[in-house]
Amino acid sequence: MPHDHHDHDHPHALLPPDPALRVKALETILTRKGLIDPAALDEILDTYQNRIGPQNGADVVARAWSDPAFRDALLKDATAVVADLGYYGRQGEHIEVVENTPDTHNMVVCTLCSCYPWPLLGIPPGWYKSDAYRARAVREPRRVLADFGVTLPDTTAVRVWDSTAEVRYLVLPMRPAGSDGMDRAALAGLVTRDSMIGTGLPRSPE
Amino acid sequence: MTRVHDMGGRFGDGPVVPEPQGIAQFGADWHPRALAVTLAAGALGQWNIDMSRRARENLAPKDYARFSYYEKWIAALADLLVETGTLSRDDLRVAADDSRHPLSERALKAERVASVLARGSPADRPGGPAPAFSAGQKVRSLRPAANRLIEGGHTRLPAYASGALGTVLRLHGTHVLPDSSAHGLGDAAEPLYAVAFPASELWAQPENPNDEVILDLWQSYLEPA
């Protein structure tokens, strides 16, 4: 059987060891050869620092809370529904929305790397990529939730979704009590990033 | 059998440290540069996402453990550039010259960034083998968790979920098989399923008997049970 030959003598060791210098060196090499365009890098950065973030997911959740037909369609074929809202794209090619209920709390992890629904939530926060979260979320989700200040009743089952393929999961949290009559924009303001990963709960209305 | 990235269920990592809500912030100035350089270089089309993951996992265990997230990205990017012949070792070793690269025609331009990011790279494929399992069916995951095509190769079956009895929740469709794709062996697309495993099937001391872990697993990772 062939074996993975790519285990020794890694080329990256030829670059400076300091990470900032290493990135700079590779960026310089690729730019001078015309393989990357500095203006394109700026555009990518602007996209993920300013334009794509959890406000997209919050919009989806607020719509689901406001419109039962939207919710039903979202749970049935989320990829098509969020694409209609302009939230299709890299690391969100196959979306599933999983709904929290009094009986079931959903929580998302990627134990093998850090897969995350970028078009809906932006780039992942540091903790999502941490060894601690990747290692612990599948074995002791309730202790991980405690790190976030969340305690669930024993009667609520925890379903942890380990993102092992290209399907990206978004949690649809339960609509908070006291939010009756709030419009969609106000509802979106209750939706936190962590509540859509399943490590948090939505804010309560003031 | 395992590689260091396969850490689901591991003990000893300490607390998870929450961060403020909203758009996630980068931890250092070079982090966003590493992200942007990696995405822009990926747009040259010389590798796929499975090859990217494989390159990160193939870092030496001691490097994988001590490198931060974007350090893994940039090291794996350098390795991929050389592996695919896009750059030579000399290109990395000495200050680059200004000669245009044959692939420079394909460099991602600023005006195309939005459309490239919006287009993504879907992993589903038409055709492929017929689904062997249906929702509600009991299945057992392979043991050991390992690539069956390449010794020590990339796979997406975590060790903690190997040899476990679960229930098919749903069929996602037919998706590219990473075990093949990560090694340039083609898409080899297969039916992909969400499979639910009771926590008690995976852990000696589950926190709650009703808890479950759900994994997306390819047909060849599963046997009827």
UniProtKB/TrEMBL annotation, chain A:
Keywords: Lyase, Metal-binding. Pfam families: NHase_alpha (PF02979). Signal peptide: none annotated. It catalyses: an aliphatic primary amide = an aliphatic nitrile + H2O. Residues 19-199 form the Nitrile hydratase alpha/Thiocyanate hydrolase gamma domain. GO terms for molecular function: nitrile hydratase activity. Coiled coil: none annotated. Its EC number is 4.2.1.84. Gene3D superfamilies: Nitrile hydratase alpha /Thiocyanate hydrolase gamma. Belongs to the nitrile hydratase subunit alpha family. This is nitrile hydratase. It comes from Sedimentitalea xiamensis.
From TrEMBL, chain B:
It catalyses: an aliphatic primary amide = an aliphatic nitrile + H2O. It comes from the Bacteria. Signal peptide: none annotated. GO terms for molecular function: nitrile hydratase activity. Its EC number is 4.2.1.84. The keyword DNA damage does not apply. Residues 1-109 form the Nitrile hydratase beta subunit-like N-terminal domain. Keywords: Lyase. Residues 122-224 form the Nitrile hydratase beta subunit domain. It holds the Pfam family NHase_beta_N. InterPro entries: CN_hydtase_beta-like_N, CN_hydtase_beta_C, CN_hydtase_beta_dom_C, Elect_transpt_acc-like_dom_sf, Nitrile_hydratase_bsu. The keyword Lyase applies. NHase catalyzes the hydration of various nitrile compounds to the corresponding amides. Belongs to the nitrile hydratase subunit beta family. This is nitrile hydratase.
